[in-house]
Specification:
FAD, FAD/NAD(P)-binding domain, five-stranded parallel β-sheet, Enolase-like, domain 1, FAD/NAD-linked_Rdtase_dimer_sf, 3 domains, oxidoreductase activity
């Protein structure tokens, strides 16, 4: 089997790349390999599926005719397990060998499984994709109590879905407060209170040492020896990049697959994007993992343009989230807390049901933000961060209640209105 463009991964990055390729090359053969047996869907919506709020059809990110309309060959339900960069071939788990001219690795992440005794029983689940979500949903008839291991983004989204289905939940988080990768402690405590109001039991500073039961889950034992009865366990500690395919082929891998500012790996004609890659983070000024949906899609588009021969530079991304968990609106981006007190300024504002924090570096550029409660203007702040605009002239106004575009200098307003805030995202530049 031969193809011009081979894309390993049928999610945000792969779809973004295919669309970008088709803008440049209308006829070159595109082949997408998807490990799951589903057409492209929104993975952030799997909690809504478990909650009963979305069907798989409603989770589609493109129409049923997307592959056909774009002349894309899609192979679903198969995994790429071997790659030969010299021969330019990829072998699938069924033995199929695909010869390519250009390749994109968009393999995403895989769940982190902490060391625990008692794995392998019925009632233990991951919560990464729709396949996991379907297994969880099917098991709910057998469950009344659940333990969710991990109080991060995945764990809290899973917990909210289970609570909506009437399951009594306990969240076990090894650090001191939930959502600690995107929130500082003050914001984390606010989030914890919001979660507890829904009857969730929060166990912070703890881990699960053992899962009880013979054939199926009956409870867990914490690292302090305390036991808790439950019917199911959701392991939602987080994900790490799926780099084994690239690494075994000799492609440079650090924490993720290392890419340049065109999303190309250390091997010519091979690109990477999304959760598997380590791309430029403009907040930290270096390559970092950024496992969020928008960055995967944008990185995929940049890779797609370059795959199709249209030189395009990735302007950089950073961790960013706009969420609503347990009735609490949250918008975060960049650094939740500065790495050291030197060289950074922190501005804070707190009111009834709200919390705002901005982190500013020595160049007077916004490098971090946390908004809880009222997040209506979060997009303005994120725009300042993304476009690396110095806030020197209006720093004292940043947290005023009436701060907005109107308070910015005229030249900044013009840039914002004619650039990224005018309803478009600057994907890249040659």
């Amino acid at each position: 089997m031969k193809t011009k463009y081979l894309i390993i991964g049928n999610s945000a990055g792969g779809i973004g790349a295919a669309e970008a390729i088709r803008e440049i090359d209308k006829i070159g053969i595109i082949t997408i390999i998807g490990e799951e047996p589903f057409e492209a869907y929104s993975r952030p919506l799997i909690s809504k599926y478990v909650a009963g709020e979305y069907t798989p059809d409603a989770m589609r990110i493109r129409s049923e005719k997307f592959y056909e309309n774009n002349n894309i060959d899609v192979v679903m339900g198969h995994k790429a397990y071997k790659m030969d960069t010299a021969a330019k071939t990829v072998t699938l788990d069924d033995g199929t060998e695909i010869e390519y001219q250009k390749l994109l690795i968009a393999t995403g992440g895989k769940p982190i499984i902490p060391k625990m005794e008692g794995m392998g029983k019925a009632g233990i689940f991951n919560f990464i994709n729709l396949s996991d979500a379907k297994k969880v949903e099917e098991y709910l008839a057998n469950a009344r109590r659940a333990v969710v291991i991990g109080g991060g983004l995945i764990g809290i989204s899973a917990t909210e879905a289970l609570v909506k289905r009437g399951i009594k939940c306990t969240v076990v988080e090894m650090k001191g407060y939930p959502l600690n990768t995107i929130l500082d402690e003050q914001a984390g405590r606010i989030a914890e209170m919001a979660i507890k109001k829904y009857g969730v039991n929060m166990m912070t500073g703890r881990t699960v040492a053992r899962i009880l039961g013979e054939d199926k889950v009956t409870g867990v034992v914490y690292d302090d020896g305390h036991e808790m009865v439950c019917d199911m366990v959701v392991v939602a500690v987080g994900v790490f990049p799926r780099t084994e395919l690239a690494q075994s082929a000799g492609i440079t891998v650090n924490r993720g697959i290392v890419v340049d500012n065109h999303m190309m790996t250390s091997v010519p004609d091979i690109y990477a994007c999304g959760d598997a890659s380590e791309a430029y983070d403009y907040v930290y000024g270096s390559g970092r993992l950024s496992p969020v949906w928008p960055n995967a899609y944008i990185g995929g588009r940049v890779a797609g343009y370059n795959l199709a021969g249209s030189p395009t530079r990735y302007r950089g991304g950073t961790a960013m989230n706009s969420l609503n968990y347990f009735g609490l609106e949250m918008a975060t981006a960049g650094m939740a807390s500065p790495p050291s007190p030197e060289g950074y300024e922190v501005l804070k504002s707190e009111g009834p049901g709200s919390y705002r924090k901005l982190v500013i570096n020595s160049e007077d550029k916004l490098v971090g933000m946390i908004f809880l409660g009222d997040i209506d203007k979060a997009g303005v702040y994120f725009g300042l961060m993304r476009d690396r605009i110095p806030v020197t002239a209006f720093k004292k106004k940043l947290l005023s209640d009436d701060f907005g575009l109107a308070q910015l200098p005229k030249e900044v307003i013009e840039e914002r209105l004619t650039g990224a805030t005018a309803g478009r995202v600057k994907i890249g530049e040659a």
